[in-house]
Amino acid sequence: MPQLNLDPWFLILSFTWLVYIVVLQPKISSHLSMNNPTNKNNTTVNTNPWTWPWT
Question: InterPro entries from the xrefs (predicted)?
């Protein structure tokens, strides 16, 4: 059963992650987002207590 042989698959997995971390990840991270998030105004909301009719 060849799928139980770990040697070639572990090497392929290791090289794939190495390529991702060293080559692709900096290229992906270098792109700037077009919609940068902005800070929301911290306004406090005036809340009124609920008036219960049975109290």
Answer: ATP8_metazoa, ATPase_protein_8
